[in-house]
Amino acid sequence: MLALLALHLGLALAVPFAAPRLGPRVFLLAAAAPAATAGWAATRAGDVLDGRPVTSSTAWVPGLGLTLDLRLDPLGLLMVTLVSGVGTLVFLYCAGYFSAGQRGLGRFAGVLTGFSGAMLGLVLADDLLLLYVFWELTSVTSWLLIGFDDESPQSRRAAQQALLVTTLGGLVMLLGLLLLAQEAGTASLSGILADPPRGPTVAIALVLVLVGAFTKSAQVPFHPWLPAAMAAPTPVSAYLHAAAMVKAGVYLVARLAPAFAVVAPWRPLVLTVGLATMLVGGWRALRQSDLKRLLAFGTVSQLGFLMVLLGAGTPEAALAGATLLLAHGLFKSTLFLAVGVIDHETGTRDLRELSGLGRRLPVLAAVATLAALSMAGVPPLLGFVAKEAAYEAFLHGGPGGAVVFAGLFLGSVLTAAYSARFVWGAFASKPSCVATPAHTPSPGFVAPVVVLGASGLVLGLLPGLADPLVQAYAASYPLEAGRELEHLALWHGLTAALGWSALTLAAGAGLFLLREPVRRGQRGASRVLSAVDADRAYDLSLSWLDRAAQRSTAVVQSGSLPVYLGTVLLTLVVLTGGALVGGTSISGDLQLWDRPLQAVVAVVVAAAAVATARAHRRFTAVLLVGAVGYGVAVLFVLQGGPDLALTQFLVETLTLVLFVFVLRRLPSSFPRSTPRRSQLVRAGVATAVGAVVAAGVLVAGQARTAPPASQDYLDRALPEGGGSNVVNVVLVDFRGFDTLGEITVLVVAALGIATLVPAGRRRPQEQSR
Amino acid sequence: MTTSERADPSRSVVLETAVRLVFHTVLVFGVYLLFAGHNQPGGGFVGGLVAGCAFVLRYAVTGREGIGRAVPVDPVLPLGAGLLLAGVTGAAAWLLDGQFLESGKVELDLPVLGVVKATSALPFDTGVFLVVVGLVLLVLRTLGAEAEQ
Amino acid sequence: MTGNLTLALLIGVLYGVGTYLLLQRTLTRVVIGLGLMSHGANLLLLAAGGSAGAVPFAGSTDGGAGAGTADPLPQAMVLTAIVITFGVTAFLLALAFRSWLLTGEDAVQDDVEDRRIAALEPEEHPHAARPEDEA
To answer: If you average pLDDT over residues C27-54, what whole number do you get?
Structure first.
């Protein structure tokens, strides 16, 4: 399995270089990757369906316990069929769709292959973190593919919207996955499913994961990115935004539902969001005039349907969901590819301009009609089989009962109506417009569409072909003894579900026939509903984010050095002071001084320091600071540090010289100080800092619990360091690394000085003088 | 010393002579502190600062050119050399299968001086010494010289 | 361990005055404030290391590591800190000098770019590219 992923990656990197030579035929080369995967999956299908999943495990980052765990089980096999099976056909279709002179062809082919690999990894991953990595890779590749036409502002906006919404959801999901992995004690997906953790944390984790799944599968209220993504070339819409990527969220729900559907917030959340999505998508699809957007809203609707079925958490619903997953992948990509052909041959996909194409492109019309009928749920197609199973699952007291069933029924009526609208819009002869001129597409261009469309018919007529696959997935639910799931079939007898199906189709046909009154009604309703437009909400939140960023930047980044320093120091006061007040007390003995002389010197030093702050002339201030320095040197002597005192003395002298150098050029007095009020604020901050530090010194002195490290230094200095001046031995031996760092700082400071004040800058003037 | 310098009325001949006498003494004292530092107060930092003070004294009476004559190298040279020396001393421990900066001791029986103890701390400390001296020299050359204009 | 009240108060004063000067706009005063704060920090390190004691020389007290010896580790830290403060002070003074060369004063002005950003009017997000339904 790793080899297949590597093949995708390798081809993704290679095809951009092959594109200039091969032109659109480069897609035939790239198709090798999904084709090989599909072939491999076919050979393993027997094992997988017999309950022997294929697994592979490779160490990735051993230090972090990350492994490349891959696993092919029935659900994985179903998804691989869509990802690689449909994928292969889409690649073949691309070879006819693009012209030789297409700009960015190699990039497109490479990214599409990369997406195919990422999607394959996503459905095979058996590790939560690995799954997340592939999940985000599909988001990124999707972003690149939607924004393929990078000169159009509409594509750029659509690409950004898709990226923002899906990665934001992905991040939320990552949080959930991490929580889940922590609660379970393992990141292994199969491990978690085998022994699912329980508890309030798990409930929170699942809600977070579901948010990720909802964004990825374009559920309300995150759905607007999917219709907007129709700015991408049609093969992308067919592959990413119908068959594969948007199924990722549904896939994750399907993956987790057997173990977690019983956890409290799962069912209400999934069923509500799924039903709302199904209805909103269907309603909006009925209003579209662009065939691609019609299909996109149809996809939103169907994704909601899938979410309900696969998230409901009963084996019957799961069976229906898996069947619909397959059916939708087939009919929706067929329809998209058909729209691509129409767009390619006529130059438009507006159903108000298309007329008479049914006669001009009979093969295409036939195949697309088949697919649309499958979407509407007309026998004998796979879509009908799936819808029958779905009705069956919720008619007899499934989760949510009658409410959910009513929602599914309404959604299906809308689906039937927009399916009819699609066929009518694309192929019918309309009296209001002239027949659209169209080129005849080459057979190779239409062939993939025919294969996809026909497979829906074949699987519908022979549901036994798909039955083992969906049965194997539904078997991941525990089933009471003696109960058996019904097999997929076209004819179950005169059941209630059949009656409801017939009613659905009739109502859908009615909606289509009454399209003019319906359109007026929708227009009226949309005026009322526009207040809750999710796409506008996206725009508003983006501009709100912009404004918030700007305002916070204006506040946080004021550009004033005193404000910055004051903030840092106040943080010190609050944090350290808070800790001092909160948790410590001075318990040990306090003494006034070690030696009385200490106090005398300290008074002098303190007085000089305070005078420094009050000095008006620069030179006075510098001299006073020198006095402080020498006083501190005396304190060092009293403390028992002759080296320190010596160093302090010398440095103080050199610093004085330094100040004199610079002060010679500066005005003798400090400039007039700022208003009194701001000086008082400064004095307040200063007092607080001083008080906190003084208290901190007293507490820190008491806080020692371990013996000082230097006890050891005193013993080891002579035998190991070869010197009796322990301070020096510490500097050059025990803590030599620190000293090396410190002289490096000195060198850096010196280089800074040399750059700021170039010594040779005035030499030319000197010579000329 | 050029005639123009001699003609400068702000110069004190007494001070100049005194500094000339003291300059080398202070310099040598700095070097002494470097060598003595391992066992007595002193060390690379202190030694370097004392030597630096010697140059400051010299600068005070003769200006930038006096320094240039006393040390005819770019101050960046001791800075770099010092850092390099300290680093190389640390790295040399690797060659002797030690850890970075692990100290070594050598006892040499020299014909005239008798047994001489040398530790790897000395070249390291010399590096520190050079960096500090370089920093002081650089400050004199840049800020000092600039301020002279 | 015993706490030394005199040193604690002195450190507090040095930090307080240092902070006050650090918050000024004149770069020279900022440098001076930093110097005072460094003195405070150095004393703080020493005070945290324990009471005053004999010079930490191996073999100078009986039995080497006696209780009356000052702690050598903070001393070593302070020693390097002093020299580094010198380097930093020199750098800051060079900065002040440069500032004087360029602007004729050594006051730290507010960042012009930051003020400009703060004064910006929030701009509307473009909606133009949003696709619409059939009317």
So the answer is: 87
Q: A582 with A499, same domain?
A: no
Give the residue on B whose Cα is nearest the Cα of A718. B39
Smallest CA–CA distance from B100 into chain A, residue: A737
Domains of chain C in start order, with CATH, are 5-51+71-111 (1.10.287.3510)
Q: Which domain holds residue A313?
A: 265-513
Residues A378 and A285 in one domain: yes
Longest dimension (CA), chain C: 99
Q: Using the beta-carbon criterion (under 8 Å), do B121 and A725 form an inter-chain contact?
A: no
Measured between alpha carbons, how far is residue A508 from residues A416, A418, A502, A518 in Å? 5, 8, 10, 12
**B 107-126 → A contacts, CB under 8 A:** 117, 119, 121, 124-125
Which residue reads 């998804």 in tokens? Answer: A79
Helices (H), A530-675: 534-556, 561-583, 596-614, 618-639, 642-663
What the block records as the tokens of A206 is 């699942």
On whether residue A271 sits in a domain, the answer given is yes
CA distances, A367 to each of A35, A270, A425, A443, B99 (Å) = 23, 34, 15, 13, 76
Domain count of the fold of chain A? 4
Residue A353 to residues A290, A430, B85: CA-CA distances in angstroms?
10, 9, 83
Q: Which residues contact C94 (CB under 8 A, 6 or more apart)?
A: A752, A753, A756, A757, B142, B143
For residue A83 the two structure tokens come to 């990802």
Q: Is some CB atom of chain B closer than 8 A to the CB atom of A759? A: yes
Mean pLDDT of A568-597: 80
Does A372 reside within a domain? yes
Q: Report ipTM for this prediction.
A: 0.86
Are both A382 and A412 inside the same structural domain? yes
A322-373 residue pLDDT tens: 999 999 999 999 999 999 999 998 988 898 889 888 888 999 999 999 999 9
Averaged over A477-487, what is the pLDDT?
Answer: 77
Q: Which residues of A730-753 are buried (b: 16+ CB within 10 A; e: fewer)?
A: bbbbbbbeebbebbebbbebbebb
Q: Measured in whole angstroms, how far is the alpha carbon of residue A672 from the centre of its chain?
A: 54
Which residues, listed in sequence order, are joined to residue A54 by a DSSP beta bridge? A72
Nearest to C97 among B39, B43, B143 (CB): B143
Both tokens assigned to A144: 């690149």
The average pLDDT across C56-61 equals 62
A591/C24 touch (CB, cutoff 8 Å), yes or no: no
Is the pTM of the predicted complex or chain greater than 0.90? no
* Residue A96 falls inside a structural domain: no
Q: Are residues A450 and A506 in the same domain?
A: yes
Calpha distance B121→B108 (Å, rounded): 16
Are A292 and A341 members of one domain?
yes
Q: What Rg value do the Cα atoms of chain A yield, rounded?
A: 37
Domain hosting B138: range is: 3-148
